[in-house]
């Protein structure tokens, strides 16, 4: 994101975004709620992914990232299918132009979700393939329906994986399983051994997937520190290269956390047997060494306008 100021909406339900719908939880609550629901909303196309959907999702996650009112996000789909992958009737262009100037739209969504301080729970109430799967990989939790089918079908469409899947998928399921999923391009039930623990919960009833995701989101929003959660996920995704380096990094971040008011609130609420009220903002109160890794610049290079007089 750029450093320019962004106006936060008084209500996410009033925010109109193409091909997705934002909802408060409970639905219809006038003020912004700690749990926000994103619903892929192209049921007539099985929620097939479009550039407009990518723009909408990226904007939504960028807003949640800076909004202290939001504590957790639930992503789901309208209808019987979570996402049928990219809308192939729209396609991806003709391959013209320079590769250095191209950014895959699924990758923009994946990075926005990954960089968002607020955890995402994906409620896959139906089947998902292609980018419908890869865009969920940066999420903290994935819950699905046992009778639905899921797959990374790129090689069957003459395409390579995208949405940063080459980074996330092997780390989530292991290289051997990831190689099988990508090489075959097959579609499998969620209990397949090839998925490993990608889906943390597989439910027999499709209608139970969303309520379970909301139950988890409520628990996270009410009982965990957004700052501690964000820093802990970053330690795992952007961790050290050895146990010794991990020890040094974790010690530095832990030392910072002990000085924060969320630590005092967490201990106090536990000893006093009451609900915690965490107030630290992950963007304002993060560890001084955050980010402790070097972030690659994914922005396109600026060019001199042809109309410029040099």
TrEMBL record:
Supply the InterPro entries for this chain.
ClpP/crotonase-like_dom_sf (IPR029045), ECH/Chromodomain_protein (IPR051053), Enoyl-CoA_hydra/iso (IPR001753), Enoyl-CoA_hydra_C (IPR014748)
**Member of which family?**
Belongs to the enoyl-CoA hydratase/isomerase family.
- Name of the protein this chain belongs to: Enoyl-CoA hydratase
Query: Lineage of this protein's species?
Result: Eukaryota, Fungi, Dikarya, Ascomycota, Pezizomycotina
